[in-house]
Amino acid sequence: MHFEFLIEDISGKEMLDILLPKIIDSSHSFSVKSYKGLGRIPASLTAGSDPSKRILLQELPRLLAGYGKTFSSYTDFKAVLIIVCDLDDKCLKQFRSELIKILDACTMKPETRFCIAVEEGEAWLLGDLTAIYRAYPAAKKVILKKYENDSICGTWELLANAVYSGGANALKSRGYQAIGAEKSNWARNISPHLNPDANISPSFQYFKTKILQLLAGENII
Fold first, then answer.
1. Distance separating alpha carbons of residues 140 and 142, to the nearest angstrom
2. Quick check: 47 and 63 in contact, CB under 8 A?
3. What is the count of structural domains for the chain?
4. Cα separation of 139 and 201, whole Å?
5. Is residue 36 within a helix (H) or strand (E), and if so which, with residue range?
6. How far apart are the first and last CA of the chain?
7. Is 7 a residue whose pLDDT tops 70?
8. What CA–CA distance (Å, rounded) separates 125 from 120?
9. CA–CA dist 15, 32 (Å, integer)
């Protein structure tokens, strides 16, 4: 089986590139493609888009249609598309419904799963505190122990307050590029220590379960 993962930013790709081989064995293949932000679902699913901007949700109708055509041509193996994006402050039920609506509008639907990190991708790092302590031995335990998994709390800011000198405010003062670079540092440093089976983020476990179901041949949406 081949897996295509689409994720909204480079730090998410860096996390998945390290993490996925712990879930998907080498008899299968995968590719992770990152975008330059999540954006918004377009009001018209047939509206044109600008691929050069690489905004995931704005490109999603075109991407799903394209993967549907591509996957239909595969005869020697099965392929599946997994969309990974942050929930942020959206309603999970409504957001998932909107994503499925885009998929259902495709003439040729690719096998697709939507996996949503609650609140942000850093929630999947925070699901394994042991991994964080191994990557950052000086991490502030008093902050990390107060975190409620998959809570809407300003997830990346909480992680910054625990592991970054000066905390989230100091990082924000350096601008968006510095924030993105530091998120990539966290992904590269923490992900090698993550244990998929011990991770207690519910949204990560949903993600892992979907992959394992597909590998087992279970056709569960």
1. 6
2. no
3. 2
4. 19
5. none
6. 17
7. yes
8. 10
9. 10
Q: What is the pLDDT of residues 180-213, one digit of tens each?
A: 999 999 999 999 999 999 999 999 999 999 999 9
Would you place residue 15 in the very low, low, confident or very high pLDDT band (cuts 50, 70, 90)? Answer: very high
Tokens of 7: 């994720």
Q: Prior bond to 98 cis, omega within 30?
A: no
Contact 221, 156 (CB under 8 A): no
Same domain for 21 and 98 = yes
Domain enclosing residue 67, as ranges: 2-121+200-215
Question: What is the per-residue pLDDT across 25-38, written as a single tens digit (0 to 9) for each?
Answer: 999 999 999 999 99
Look-up of token digits 């590029």: 177
Tokens (6 digits) for 155 = 């997830």
Is the pLDDT confidence value at 18 over 60?
Answer: yes
23 — phi, psi (to 5°)? -115, -40
Task: Return the amino acid letter for 71.
Answer: F
Q: How many CB atoms lie within 10 A of CB 170?
A: 13
Q: For residues 170 and 185, what is the distance between their CA atoms, to the nearest angstrom? A: 16
> CA–CA separation, 200 vs 29, rounded Å?
26
pTM > 0.85: yes or no? yes
Asked if 101 and 135 count as a contact pair (C-beta separation under 8 A), the reply is no
Can you give the CATH number for the domain in which 7 is found?
3.40.50
- Tokens representing 55 are 């905004």
